[in-house]
Amino acid sequence: MRFDIITLFPEMVTEAAQVGVTGKAIENAIVTLNVWNPRDYTCDRHKTVDDRPFGGGHGMVMKYQPLHDAVIAAKVDAKNDCKVVYLSPQGRPLTQALLSEASELSQLILVAGRYEGIDERFIQRDCDEEWSLGDYVISGGELAALIVIDAITRLLPNVLGNAQSAQEDSHSDGLLDYPQFTRPEMSAANDAVPDVLLSGNHADIARWRMKQALGRTWQKRPDLLKKKTLSAEQERLLAQFKVEVDKV
Ligand code: 9WO
Question: Of the residues 116, 120, 204, 235, which is catalytic?
């Protein structure tokens, strides 16, 4: 998969992407990352990428033309399954399902804005979609682009060592993760690792983990649970969790 990022701070994206899972995917040529700086597509002596907003107000707005020319450059050998996405708080809220869909694309062009925003005509004419990470504001789209790249990369075939691990991650089945423990077995008298995890009984462990995942989702994110249809077994495990919570 190919990612193209339109950004005034290309090194911010390329440096951060070299670390960890995304770095390995780039090294193994599963992912290619290209950055395009609108400043390189300006036509004036001062390489102007921003201007004052019509109607007044403080701050600056990114100009249409350098952004447009940078996207055109990124599209030189675009296939038809290419999408241009602007990252902003006005966008459609990103979900694991949306990211999973996007991981089928061969090219994703991510536009990272700066300043107080970008000329609306660029969003209208040049972008296919607008995505939001959540209801908060950051100083530019680069960190959002990195999150999108990271989340999609880990869904690509041959990226995660264990083929199952992305599938088993929190949210891929609409539930929160079950709790994890490692050594030591007992750090304080009333701080023990649940017995079942030490039992070696894999069916019991799987049931316990499913019960915890259901229980925590019910406790912390009831909104997620409302969207899911549970199997009879899952209903039974959740009921059991609720009884056990009442006892403590
Ligand atoms: C800054 C600002 C200052 C005064 C009045 C209004 C203002 N709006 C903004 C603003 O939204 N700036 C944006 C910063 C411009 C485009 C890139 N920026 C951005 C992207 N902030 N937050 C995101 C983002 C992207 C994806 N998901 C969540 C947030």
Answer: 116
Q: Is the dihedral of CA 229, 235, 239, 240 positive or negative?
A: negative
Check if 235 has its Cβ closer than 6 Å to any atom of ligand 1.
no
Identify the structural domains of the chain with CATH numbers, from first to last.
2-153 (3.40.1280.10), 169-247 (1.10.1270.20)
- Under a CB-based contact definition with an 8 Å cutoff, are residues 118 and 126 in contact? no
Catalytic-role residue among 169, 216, 221, 236? 169
Nearest residue CA, atom 23 of ligand 1?
88
pLDDT 10s digits, 96-144:
999 999 999 999 999 999 999 999 999 999 999 999 999 999 999 999 9
Does the active-site annotation cover 89?
yes
CA 218 vs CA 35, 176, 196: distances in Å: 42, 9, 22
- Ligand 1 within 6 A of CB of 53: no
For residue 215 and ligand 1, the question of a CB distance below 6 A is answered with no
pLDDT digits (tens, 9 = 90+) for 37-93: 999 999 999 999 999 999 999 999 999 999 999 999 999 988 899 999 999 999 999
C-beta separation of 134 from 109 below 8 A: no
By the 10 Å C-beta count (0-12 exposed, 13-18 middle, 19+ buried), 29 is classed as exposed
Category of 148 on φ-ψ map: left (φ > 0), alpha (ψ -120 to 50) or beta: alpha
Beta bridge partners of 110: 5, 85
The tens digit of pLDDT for each residue in 147-158 reads 999 999 999 999
Question: Does 116 participate in catalysis according to the annotation?
Answer: yes
**Are 72 and 65 a contacting pair, CB within 8 Å?**
no
